Amino acid sequence: MDPLKGDGEDGVVNLSNVVFLTQRIAETLDVEIKRWATGKEGNLRALLSTLQYVLWPECGWQPVSLTDLITAAAVKKVYRKATLCIHPDKVQQKGANLQQKYIAEKVFDLLKISVLRGKTHFAP
């Protein structure tokens, strides 16, 4: 039985099944995002240089090496590109699915928190 299809012939979607599936997807994605961010909390350079490991291929992100993030100006430029690429509103406009929207929102927040913690030398 497909949990998103109705239980009977009336075709009514079982809302509790949808909520359950959404929660399971969020839990799975949270594990992946946490695994990616572990050890990089507050380290914007490390987060930016490894974004390709947490983002989906169709998002358009081009990997950046850590050696390209030496100067504050370079970090600022790549940070701006990253936030444009994964901004929740932009991702929604591009027609992303639920998982992609969730990843974009969480990663966007982690990047913002990293900047706010001040372990970079620029003000966005």
UniProtKB/TrEMBL annotation:
Protein name in UniProt: J domain-containing protein
Any one Gene Ontology BP term: clathrin-dependent endocytosis
InterPro entries: J_dom_sf (IPR036869)
One GO cellular component, as annotated: vesicle
Single annotated GO MF: clathrin binding
Superkingdom as given in the UniProt entry: Eukaryota
Organism per entry: Dillenia turbinata
